[in-house]
Design a protein that fits this description.
Layout (H helix, E strand, L loop, with lengths): L1 H20 L8 H10 L6 E12 L5 E9 L10 E12 L5 E9 L6 E12 L5 E9 L3
Parallel strand pairs: 1-3, 2-4, 3-5, 4-6
């Protein structure tokens, strides 16, 4: 029993280490990639954009609409090497006959070496004849 527990613990510790060894960018053309890095000298290495919306219609017959947008990009000709984008929203129609609509859009910078995106939403309509509509869009650059 102890051997099985020790083997499982060793495996769990080795998986993240193996993932880190395999991470990073694939070097197809090291000269070209070095040129990309050199072109960004004096610019931030990473950019993070966070767009959060909370929209609610609580009273009977009430209506609430929300539209948010974020456009990420480098400033003064700079492009980050890594981009992180977070889009999250909560949209609630909780009264009888209430209506809640929410649209959140994020556009990340183009030409980055890596982009991490995180998109989550909570959409609820509670009560007779209530409606809740939600649209979350998290795009990388074009």
């Amino acid at each position: 029993m102890l051997r099985a527990s020790l083997a499982a613990l060793t495996l769990l510790a080795a998986i993240p280490a193996a993932a880190q060894d395999r991470g990073g960018m694939h070097t197809n053309n090291a000269i070209s990639e070095l040129g990309e890095i050199q072109a960004n000298r004096g610019c931030p290495l990473s950019a993070t954009s966070v767009t959060v919306g909370v929209n609610n219609a609580l009273a009977g017959g009430s209506s609430a609409l929300q539209q948010l947008g974020t456009r990420g990009g480098g400033s003064s000709g700079c492009r980050p090497l890594v981009s992180t984008q977070v889009v999250t929203g909560a949209n609630l129609a909780l009264g009888r006959g209430s209506s809640a609509g929410q649209a959140i859009t994020a556009q990340g910078p183009s030409g980055v070496l890596a982009t991490d995106t995180y998109t989550r939403g909570y959409n609820a309509g509670y009560g007779a004849l209530s409606t809740a509509n939600q649209r979350l869009i998290n795009q990388t650059g074009h």
